[in-house]
# Entry
Amino acid sequence: MALLETVGLTKRFVGVVALDGLDFAAESGEVHALVGANGAGKSTLMNLLSGVFPPSAGEIRLDGQPVTFRSPAAAREAGISTVYQELSSIPQLSVAENLFLGREPRTRLGRVDRERLRREAAAILSDSHIALDPDRLVETLSVAERQLAELARGLAFSARILILDEPTAVISGPEIDSLFAVIRRLKAQGRLVLYVSHRFEEVFAIADRITVLRDGRKILTAERRAIGADGLVKAMIGHALAPRFVRSEPPAAPPLLTARWEVAGGASELTVRPGEIVGLAGLVGAGRSEIALRLIGAAPSHGMAVELDGQALGHRSPYRLLRRGVVYLTEDRKRAGLFTGLSVLANTTASTLKQFSIAGIVGRRERPVARGMLEQLRLVYRGLDQSSQTLSGGNQQKLLLARALLASPRLLICDEPTRGVDVGAKEEIYAILAAIAERGVGILLISSEIGELVRLCHRLLVVRNHTVVATMDGRSASEDAVLAAAAGLTTTAAPP
# Structure
C-alpha cells in the first residue's frame, strides 16, 4: 500500500485549472522526483499536500485513509514537512529559534528553555552535516546559508514525508553531497522524500522513481532507470529541445568594467569586455554575490575600485549604475527582486517607467512593450494585471529577467538567473544571454551550476574567500577543474 496517494486531485483558481484530476502514489522508503516545466502544477500539488489550501475536488490519502488538512500545521501533525524554495524563516531570529519556531522546548515554568533549544538545534545541524552556528541571526546569512537553514528546519520535524522544493537551487558541490547523504539516511529509515527539481543530473542521481507533470496533469511515472534525459525533456515540454546555440567569441575591445579589490586572501581583479560573458564560480560562502553587491554599491565597497569605460566610479549605488547601463539581476527574488503586491505589468516596467511617461503620466506604450518582452521570454501568465505573487517560482524569475532586459543594459550582472527554472526555460534564457552578448552587452554571470558557467562563459573566475584564485578559459575549462579550484585543491591563478 502506498504511503501517500492522491485520487482525482484537482485545484481550480479564477480563470485557471492548476491541477486536473491527478492520480499519484508514492511509497515509504523511496525518493520520488516530481518534475515538470514552470506552471506544470508542481507547486500547487505541494501546497495541497502541505495544507496551504484545500483541493477543489479529489482527495489525499495517507496509508490508504483519506485526510483533510485545514492548515500547514495540520499537515505537519500528520507527518508531512515541506522545505520550500522560497525562504520563509524569520530574519530577526537565530537559526536555532527558527528551527523550533512555534514548538520551542519549555522549562517547568513554561519559559523557553534556551539551553535545550540550542543543544537540540546544534544536534540537528550536526546530524545533517549543515555547518551553521545555531546562535547566528538568520538576517546575517547569505541566501545559500538561509536555504540550508530552511532544510534543517524541515528535518527538525522528523516527518514521515519530506517534500523538498528545489533544495539545491543556491548550494553547490559539498553541500549537495551532504544533502544527498541526509536523503539516503531518511530513505533507509523508511521515510518518503518527494524531490522537486529542474536539475536532471540530481534527479537521476538520487530518485528511485520520477513523475512528470504537464499542464496540471500527470504525464507519466517511471523508474529512474527506465527513462533517459531526452525522454524526460520530451515528457515535460511536449517536444525535444531545439538545437543548442553556438557560443561565439567576443570582439577584442577595451574593458567595459574593471574592478579591483584586496582582502586577506590577496589582491583580485575582475574585467568584463563588451560582448563577453564572464562567470563567477565558487562554493557556498565564497563571496560571489558579495563581490557583485559591492561592485554596484549595494554593499560597503571595502576598498573596491571600479572603472566603467576606463573612468573611475566614485560613489556608487544601484540607481546610479542603472543610469549608466549597469543592470543587476538579484539572486533573491522574494526579498530584493519582486514587488509582490504589484502586477506583472508593474514589475516588468519598474526600472523603465521614464521610457513610457510624459509629464509623469504613463502612456499607452507601456503595455504592448511589456507584453512583447514577456512573450519573448515565454512567461506563463494570465494577463498583465495578474498579481506577480501568483506566478510560479520559475515564471517569477523570468519576470525579473524581463525587467532587466527592458532596461537595455550595457552590462548585465546576473546572480543565479536560472534558479528554479525548468529545462526548456533554461535553454531560452541561455539563448537570450548569448544573443545579447553578441549585440555587445557585457555579462557577469554568477551561478551555483558549474556546468552552466562552463557552457556559457568565455572566461571563468573562481572565487574563494572573496578572492579570485583561478582564471580559466571557458572553451577548455572543465567542471572538475573549477570545483577543485573552488575547494582549494589547485592554485591555477592566471591574470584576467
